[in-house]
Amino acid sequence: ARQWRAIVGKAAMLINKCCIAAIDKHHRSFAPQVASFTSVYMETIMALDYRALQTLSQKRLVLMTRFLAKVFHNPTYKRGPALVAGTQGMVLRTPSEAYARAAEGIRKAHRYIADFWEGPVFPQFVEALITRFLVLTDDELREWEADPEGFFLVSNLELDIESEVRRCCAEALLLFLMERNIEATSRVVLSLASQAAQNQDPGALRM
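Above: the chain's sequence. Below: its structure in token form.
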């Protein structure tokens, strides 16, 4: 069973890497697949519990957040269909066919993302991102207790979507989400901060 889990984990990371490469280099051609993969990765993040976070590959967690950040930050998916005729990799009979097929894929991605910003899933995902990915692991908590100032200085230096640190990558994604819907994101952050302040459990320090 352990061997199969390892194989599945490696396959999942390979697929994730391919999706990220597609966003970077072929974002117009990849547009029709954006909704499906974005939904899968968001649902995966929202379904994680603390035990899964301790056992799942940190690289796999990083790749999921990196893909989502690239989707939400991609200019093509932000503005909707643009002039896409002649997109590389398409085998077409006429230029008008190129435009119609690529534009429809971009419209599909744009509709999905636009609905996400204003829909009920947005605050649920923000809360999941914070409570699953911005929590401190046991090792990180010990580092913070030993040197709080140094811990957050290193974190700030690595605050980038290309970071290989799970928490730093998630922080960068959270900033992208806040840029697009600051009111909903702020409400979730303030609610969680209030809950943490009222929680007497030392485990609340993980957030």
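Confidence is low (pLDDT under 50) at residues 80-93.
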